[in-house]
Structure formats: structure tokens, C-alpha cells
Amino acid sequence: MSVMAYFVALALDGVLAGTIYALIALAFVLVYKASRVMNFALGEWMVLGAVLAGVGSQSLQLGTVAALAFAVAGLAALAAGFYWLVARRLVARPAIAAIMVTLGLGMAMRGVGLLAFAGAQPLVPPDLFGQPVSIAGLTIVAGKLATAIVASLGVALIGAFWRYSRTGVALRAIADDPQAAMASGIDLDRQLAVVWSLAGMVAVIAGVLWSWVVGGGFGVAMIGLKVFPVVILGGLDSILGTIVAAILVGLLETLGAGYLDRFLGSGFGAIAPYIALLALLMVRPYGLFGQARVERV
Question: Which residues share a beta bridge with 169?
């Protein structure tokens, strides 16, 4: 393989990975943008969604679409309950409180999931996912390409929902000024429960896609922390910034692993995004697309 072909192959892998990171990170950003609560249990939601889809397919004998719908409905209900019982009390609290609570509940969810779904497997991907596809002389696994297409479609739908739907407009009003939103008749709790449910639905799709490409099981629940550099690099509450940062992180991982692992040791690609994050925060503490907040006292 020529030098240019090797670079293009690595870059393409990075972009494909970045689309999945963008979908996962948007579930985090939407919740934070609307409610100012950081949900570090997102990784456990993803794994639980993938496992529920597998249970629906293998134990309940549902088709792939029906199994996905079963998992989406289950996680949407779980996420709404999570908001009403837990997250609602974390709104306007210090960020560290939300981090500690959601991390703790995520660990508890992982433990309960291991007991309740011991031996359960995620939804089995279609047979075509393992087939090679040739694009411009490069061979790509069909599963990666299909996953990137589905993830990109999900990102586009989320962006359209946030920008054009009535609920999205209400959520943007809440994000800009909660008090003014309440004064205009918007039910904050109802709208925030909706966005938490949406995050649960997105977590299912992202979890299933991730299990098809990388693998499933509660051992990969730390993926929720893996996208943390994406969220911070993008500006924490910027949807466009999250998408751009996700592609950058995917490229940093694959290019770092492809070119630097041989010199700096295996696994450097995995830490390259964190190094970039530290470097960026020294220059732009609010991320690529974040805005500095000025508070008058």
C-alpha cells in the first residue's frame, strides 16, 4: 500500500469512527444544553440499550426492527424516570454533584445489568455487515460504512429536531433563559423529560451500532467517558462543535495509532485525543465553539 493510500485509509477510518462519536456525544450535549446536567451514565445506557435489543431478538423472538423499538421504548422510559427521580433535583446544582451522582448510578446500573442480564448478548448484526466493500480502490468492511451512514442520519435528524421542531424550539428557549421560558408558558419539567427520553433513544441506537462495530457487553460501558474529549473540544453545549470535534477525535485516534504507535508504544492513538484536549484548553478554555460566559456581579 502506498503512503497516500495508507493515509487515506486511516483518515477514512477516522471519519467513520467520528460519526459514531458524534451520535453518542450529541446525546450528552442535548441533555447538558437543556438542563445543565452532565450525564456520565450514558455509557451504561448505551450498553443496556444494546443488550435489551438483543433480549428482544433472542428471548422474545422479535425481528430486528421490533427488537430495536422494544429497546428504544425501554430506554426512553428509563431516561424519563431518571430525570423525574434524579436529574430534576440536580438542575441548578454544582456540576460536581451531577458528575458524582450520574457516575455512581451508572456504576450501580452496570452491576445490576451484569446480574440481571448475565449471558445476554447484544443484537446480532445483519450478515452483510461482515462483507468487504471496495470504494475508490480502498476496501472497507460494509458494517463500518453502514454504521457511519446510520449515525450520520441520526446526527442530521437530531440537528433538525433541535432547530425546527416545536419541542426543539422550546428546549432552545429553556437553554437560553429558563425563567423567560417559564414566563412564556413552557413547562420546563415536561420538556426536559422529553430531551432526557430522546437521549435514551439515541443511546440505544448508538449502543447497537457500537456493539456491531466494536463489540458489546457491560465491559465497554466506559465509552461514555471516551467521548468526553469530543464534548469538551466542541464547546460542551455546541451541536455543530460536537460534530466537528467528533470527526477530529476520530482522525486523531486512527492517525495517531497508524503513525505513532510504532514509535511511542501501542495504545498512543487512544490517548491522542486527550493530549489534544489539554493543548486546546490552554488556548481556548471553552472549546472550539464554546463561548465565554460573562456574569455581572
Answer: none
Per-residue pLDDT of the chain (297 residues), as tens digits, is 677 878 888 888 888 888 988 998 998 898 988 888 888 888 889 888 888 998 898 888 888 889 999 999 999 999 999 999 988 888 878 888 888 998 888 888 888 877 887 777 777 777 777 777 777 677 777 778 888 888 999 999 999 999 899 999 999 999 888 888 888 889 999 999 999 999 999 999 988 888 887 766 655 656 767 788 888 888 887 888 889 989 998 898 888 888 877 777 777 777 888 888 888 888 887 777 766 654 444
The C-alpha cell that represents 141 in the structure block: 468492511
- What is the full DSSP assignment across the chain? --HHHHHHHHHHHHHHHHHHHHHHHHHHHHHHHHH----TTHHHHHHHHHHHHHHHHHTS---HHHHHHHHHHHHHHHHHHHHHHTGGGTTTS-HHHHHHHHHHHHHHHHHHHHHHTTT--PPPPPGGGGSEEEETTEEEEHHHHHHHHHHHHHHHHHHHHHHHSHHHHHHHHHHH-HHHHHHTT--HHHHHHHHHHHHHHHHHHHHHHHHHHT--SGGGTTHHHHTHHHHHHHTSS-HHHHHHHHHHHHHHHHHHHHHHHHHH-TTHHHHHHHHHHHHHHHH-TT-SS--------
Reading the block at residue 132, the C-alpha cell is: 468487504
pTM greater than 0.85 (yes/no)? yes
- C-alpha Rg value of the chain to the nearest Å: 19
